[in-house]
Amino acid sequence: MSTALPNRRVEAWKYSDLAAALPGRTLPADTHGSVIERLAGGSAVVEAAPGAVETVLERFGEEGASLDARATTAIVHEGATLDRIVIQTGGDVRLSHWRVEVRAGGRFRQFIYAEGARLARLETDVVVAGAGAAVELRGAYLVAEGRHADLTSVVHHREAGGATHQLVKGVARAGGRGVFQGKILVAAHAQKTDARQNHHALLLEDGAEAFAKPELEIHADDVACAHGNTVGGLDDMALFYMRSRGLPDGEARALLVAAFLSEAVPESLAADVRDEILGRMHAWLEAGQ
Amino acid sequence: MLEIENLHVTVGEAPILKGLSLAVPDGEVHALMGPNGAGKSTLSYALTGREGYEAAQGSVRLDGADLLAMAPEARAAHGLFLSFQYPLEIPGVPTMTFLKAALNAQRKARGEPEVAAGPFLQLVRAKAEQLRIAPDMLKRPLNVGFSGGEKKRMEILQMLVLEPRLAILDETDSGLDIDALRIVADGVNALRSPSRAMLVITHYQRLLDYIRPDRVHVLVDGRIVESGGADLALRLEGEGYDRYLRVA
Question: What is the pTM for the complete model shown?
Answer without folding.
Answer: 0.88
